């Protein structure tokens, strides 16, 4: 009680001193500190420090500070290293400027007790959170490695629980959900070093817990400013959550309601607040309201929909907007998928009906295009086959079946070896010239063509030739193969007659063409067919016409048949 009496005496003395009319400027600051700790008095915190000419400190009116033990004047700051009960008293700081002077007075009360004297008082309502600061920024700037310890009523703070949390930036204690047990004096003790010596500094705060909870303004927690995408004509439910305050009576005095474009929902059809719930918990009163829109109409789109929470202290508003769903991305994706499907389907159709499409195109081309310029070719195809003593299958096909269909039915011009040569002509010259004036080379092969005449000879040197005309059959095929493989000027079409042909005994050039582009296979019609040229629009003849050059007009229009996929047979 002695130090309280002494503080009262100092205050009375100061008032008497001021009442005698002495001039002064600025306010009087009173500081309650504990003995044995580092302390600073600052002359001024204003922004005109650079304009000062001199700063003078004095104690008790005229007493200089040079004789005061443990007190140093460092610039504008008075340092206590550390404080002592003998430092009780009045201190004056006079700052002189070019235009005048400024005077500040301080009252310093040093308590000798073991527990620091509170320099700050704070009050918190029960159930709320509060922060206690360690106001020693100047000390922390002197020694950034300073160590801080927290005390409550001179005992270390128990921070193991979740209700008291120590935070570093800034240095403070956070009290969560305050109760009566949190009341007391909180002290931060700063241990630091200065010029090789160790000091301590303290700051104490008196915390009181008010049992009566202070009413607070409500706060809408959701939505704040939200935008929702909806389908016009659909049903939508909007939810609003809010904190309505603390204290008794808050639940009965709180309410939540909705407005659409400034109009209360009670006056709008298709709208209904289906449910509003207000719950009281230990941390406060909370509310939840649901707005049901039975049918999203155009007047509900792109307008402000407000959720309003209200209590006895005030109100808060959360905003949301409804916007129609944008399906452009979906339709774009759908169109791309359809387009991709059509492309895939088109490619598949082209692959499956390639022959029919090409043949149809050739029939329509003369109707939409001008007449083609002549290419200097005389024959559409040169037909080569293996000659024998008798009428072989290949020879019968080349002389009878092929001309019947290609020449008589479709108007192609063929040069058939063995049919169109003239006696006495130079075989080699005529054959070479005729092939150069032909657009295709049709080589007809059968199983008989692969029968070696000389088993000991190399297959490249032994073509199955006509016995009496030894040179011509091999020469016309060799000329055609040379043009096809070397000069790339003649397209070769291989036709196999009645069964698989063994190419191992044939020239390697034929084997190469067979492996590269395949061959067409013609089968003799069954016994029920009346002619070997039956079904000219069948698979084989369509494929053969597909490989033949374009013919503007034919001798006979083919009858339509179902689409086929012409793929040359590969083995």
UniProtKB/TrEMBL annotation:
A GO molecular function held by the record: interleukin-1 receptor activity
Domain of life: Eukaryota
InterPro entries on file: Ig-like_dom (IPR007110), Ig-like_dom_sf (IPR036179), Ig-like_fold (IPR013783), Ig_sub (IPR003599), IL-1_rcpt_fam (IPR015621), IL-1_rcpt_I/II-typ (IPR004074), Immunoglobulin_dom (IPR013151), TIR_dom (IPR000157)
The keyword Transmembrane appears for this protein: no
Signal sequence bounds: 1-21
Gene3D superfamilies for this protein: Immunoglobulins, Toll/interleukin-1 receptor homology (TIR) domain
Keyword set, alphabetical order: Disulfide bond, Glycoprotein, Hydrolase, Immunoglobulin domain, NAD, Repeat, Signal
Residue span, Ig-like domain: 36-109, 112-204, 218-333
The keyword Glycoprotein belongs to this UniProt entry's keyword annotation: yes
TIR domain span: 377-548
PANTHER family, A to Z: INTERLEUKIN-1 RECEPTOR FAMILY MEMBER, INTERLEUKIN-1 RECEPTOR TYPE 1
Family, similarity comment: Belongs to the interleukin-1 receptor family.
Record's protein name: Interleukin-1 receptor type 1
Native source species: Oncorhynchus mykiss (Rainbow trout)
């Amino acid at each position: 009680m002695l130090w309280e009496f002494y503080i009262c005496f100092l205050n009375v003395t100061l008032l008497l001193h001021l009442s005698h009319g002495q001039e002064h400027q600025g306010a009087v600051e009173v500081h309650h500190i504990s003995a044995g700790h580092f302390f600073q008095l600052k002359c001024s915190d204003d922004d005109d420090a650079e304009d000062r000419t001199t700063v003078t400190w004095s104690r008790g009116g005229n007493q200089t500070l040079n004789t005061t033990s443990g007190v140093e004047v460092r610039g504008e700051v008075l340092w206590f290293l550390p404080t002592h009960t003998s430092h009780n008293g009045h201190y004056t700081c006079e700052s002189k400027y070019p235009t005048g002077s400024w005077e500040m007075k301080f009252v310093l009360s040093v308590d000798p007790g073991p527990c620091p004297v509170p320099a700050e008082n704070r009050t918190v309502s029960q159930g709320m959170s509060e922060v206690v600061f360690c106001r020693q920024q100047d000390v922390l700037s002197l020694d950034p490695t300073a160590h801080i310890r927290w005390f409550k009523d001179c005992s270390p703070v128990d921070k193991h629980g979740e209700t008291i949390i120590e935070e570093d930036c800034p240095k403070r204690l956070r009290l969560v959900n305050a109760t009566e047990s949190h009341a007391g004096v909180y002290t931060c003790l700063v241990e630091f070093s200065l010029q090789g010596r160790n000091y301590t500094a303290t700051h104490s705060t008196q915390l009181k817990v008010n049992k009566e909870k202070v009413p607070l303004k409500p706060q809408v927690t959701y939505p704040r400013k939200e935008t929702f995408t909806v389908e016009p004509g659909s049903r939508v439910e909007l939810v609003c959550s809010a904190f309505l305050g603390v204290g008794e009576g808050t639940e009965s005095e709180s309410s939540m309601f909705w407005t659409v474009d400034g109009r209360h929902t009670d006056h709008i059809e298709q709208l209904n607040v289906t449910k509003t719930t207000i719950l009281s918990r230990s941390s406060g009163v909370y509310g939840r309201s649901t707005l049901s829109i039975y049918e999203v109409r155009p007047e509900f789109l792109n307008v402000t929909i407000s959720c309003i929470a209200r209590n006895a202290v005030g109100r808060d508003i959360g905003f949301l907007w409804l916007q129609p769903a944008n399906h452009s991305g979906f339709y774009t994706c759908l169109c791309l998928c359809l387009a991709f499907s059509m492309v895939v389907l088109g490619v598949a159709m082209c692959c499956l009906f390639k022959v029919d499409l090409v043949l149809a195109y050739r029939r329509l081309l003369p109707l939409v295009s001008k007449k083609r310029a002549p290419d200097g070719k005389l024959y559409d195809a040169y037909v080569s086959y293996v000659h024998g003593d008798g009428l072989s299958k290949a020879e019968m096909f080349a002389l009878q079946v092929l001309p019947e269909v290609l020449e008589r039915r479709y108007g192609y011009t063929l040069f058939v070896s063995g049919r169109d040569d003239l006696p006495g002509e130079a075989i080699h010259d005529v054959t070479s010239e005729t092939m150069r004036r032909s657009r295709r080379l049709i080589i007809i092969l059968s199983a008989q063509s692969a029968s070696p005449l000389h088993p000991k000879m190399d297959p490249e040197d032994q073509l199955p030739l006509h016995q009496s005309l030894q040179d011509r059959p091999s020469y016309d095929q060799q000329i055609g193969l040379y043009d096809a493989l070397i000069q790339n000027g003649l397209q070769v079409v291989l036709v196999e007659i009645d069964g698989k042909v063994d190419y191992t005994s044939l020239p390697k050039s034929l084997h190469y063409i067979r492996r590269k582009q395949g061959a067409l296979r013609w089968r003799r019609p069954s016994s029920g067919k009346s002619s070997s040229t039956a079904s000219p629009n069948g698979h084989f003849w369509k494929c053969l016409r597909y490989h033949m050059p374009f013919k503007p007009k034919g001798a006979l229009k083919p009858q339509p048949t179902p689409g086929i996929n012409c793929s040359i047979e590969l083995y």
